């Protein structure tokens, strides 16, 4: 099962919004939100809440790709998020997530018995390439037990 399929199966909101997991690797994750009238705002673009969910889902995909091998000993959890809406989003929007710290550094903290926190940066773009939103989600790997 791919990371996108796993997220769609386990995160009902990802299914509700019909998110499309285009790429999910430890260096980059890309997720698209189709243009769907039932999730539009008052100006005909994707609702802010749908864009937030898109960005958070892209961050979750990269976290699973980068740290999936740690799931037997730690649970990834989002602990905070900030989003800025930069331009009007219309049509399909795509979120691209990148890790803000090297994965090896995060795992080294976990190995040292700490609960690491790390940022994931997300850019949300519309089809013409314009950045419509910028988001940072802060994640932790909470050790089991």
UniProtKB/TrEMBL annotation:
Coiled coil: none annotated. It holds the Pfam family DUF4442. InterPro entries: DUF4442, HotDog_dom_sf. This is DUF4442 domain-containing protein.
């Amino acid at each position: 099962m791919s990371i996108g399929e796993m997220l769609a199966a386990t995160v009902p909101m990802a299914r509700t919004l019909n998110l499309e997991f285009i790429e999910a690797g430890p260096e980059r994750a890309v997720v698209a939100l189709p243009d769907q009238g039932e999730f539009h705002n008052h100006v005909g673009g994707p609702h802010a809440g749908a864009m937030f969910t898109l960005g958070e889902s892209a961050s979750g995909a990269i976290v699973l790709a980068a740290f999936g091998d740690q799931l037997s000993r730690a649970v990834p959890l989002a602990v905070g998020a900030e989003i800025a809406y930069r331009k009007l989003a219309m049509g399909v929007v795509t979120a691209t997530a990148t890790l803000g710290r090297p994965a090896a550094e995060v795992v080294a903290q976990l190995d040292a018995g700490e609960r690491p926190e790390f940022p994931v940066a997300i850019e949300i773009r519309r089809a013409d390439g314009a950045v419509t939103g910028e988001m940072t989600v802060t994640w932790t790997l909470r050790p089991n037990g």
